[in-house]
Specification:
Keywords: Membrane, Transmembrane, Transmembrane helix. There is one protein chain. Helix content is about 70%, strand content about 0%. With about 170 residues, it is an all-alpha fold. The chain has one domain. Helix 3 packs antiparallel against helix 4. The longest helix has 27 residues.
Length: about 170
Amino acid sequence: MAPLSQPSLSPQGCLVLMAAEGLFLLVLQFDTKHFSDFAARKMCHSLSGLMMLFLPPQYILCRLYVYAVVIVGLVMTWQLVPALPKWRFGDYGDIGITVYLIIVGFWFYSEYPVAVLAPIFFADPSGAVIGKWASRNLPEYVPWLRVLLALLKGLRVVSFVGPLLLLTLG
């Protein structure tokens, strides 16, 4: 089996991507006019993940940046520093944000291929968007559609656990 490849980005390219990510997070945090809390949360989840896919964990600069994002994110989520605002799209002690940040931080610390995290970055937020749409638009009397959506949610878990097991055991 061929190893997963990491996109090759120069250190300068990494700096540009990190600056864009920081600006993006600020916009999502403070632009309540254009983004609902739900949209901001899902965009943060998926687009931050997309940007992280391009950061090589072998670069200490990228790892330090991700550690900083994880630490600041956890401090905001758990409101450990009262001067910092909490995420507008998360609750105090939000387990979803906490687990997401810890997994990403651990992954970069371990220098594992970030591509393995793609299901977390994309399947989870897209499942939430589809689920929200379906709960509003699908009639309750079509139970097979709801069963299908539940199965698709289960596949999200399998799509993450399978590669994780291969990476750690294989």
